[in-house]
């Protein structure tokens, strides 16, 4: 009787620990990281590229008295499915401060690049405040006539810190520049 109680007690502790880990890692829910829609029609956009970059502050990359430097520690690229959903494991995990969430940038050819923290505008950039764990909708705006692609590329370079070039599969860059028109060094001013 005592051994059976101990066996079930151990099983209950294991199950509780497993459920806690699932909750913290995000596997307890199938809710998408975000859903990408056309701002004008409200319809989902399939095949948009989502780039998530996790960063941490490093005093090895820059001196401590300079405040260190944010360096990428993880980069994930995924395509939206037919419902416009993005699934990135661990994106919304619990963090002590919101700044530790990865930065999400989404692009689809024919649309203006969307960033989690910044809004591209032809004359100036704004600060995004309409995207968070409770409001996970990414609204892509169709490319307006007369916008400078050079300014758009500068915006993308700034919001990604150029770390899109470090992504394994280069999905983001392949969407930005079709292979026949690609000249990355010239375009990015390197």
Helix/strand layout:
Blueprint: H1 2-25, E1 34-38, E2 49-58, E3 69-79, E4 85-86, E5 103-107, E6 114-115, E7 118-119, E8 126-127, E9 137-140, H2 149-160, H3 171-176, H4 184-187
Parallel strand pairs: 1-9
Antiparallel strand pairs: 1-4, 2-3, 2-5, 5-6, 7-8
The assigned structural class equals alpha+beta
Count helical runs: 4
Query: Uncertain segments of ≥5 residues (pLDDT<50)?
Result: 180-190
Main sheet: strands, sense, barrel: 4 strands, antiparallel
**Main sheet: which strands, in order across?**
3-2-5-6
Strand content: 15-25%
Helical content band: 10-25%
Gyration radius (Cα, Å) is: 20 Å
Shape assignment: globular
Termini gap: 73 Å
Describe this structure in words.
The protein has 190 residues and is an alpha+beta fold. It is built from four helices and nine strands, in the order H-E-E-E-E-E-E-E-E-E-H-H-H.
Sum up the structure in keywords:
alpha+beta; 4-stranded antiparallel sheet; 3-stranded mixed sheet; disordered C terminus
Outline of the structure:
The protein has 190 residues and is of the alpha+beta class. The chain has helices at 2-25, 149-160, 171-176, 184-187; strands at 34-38, 49-58, 69-79, 85-86, 103-107, 114-115, 118-119, 126-127, 137-140.
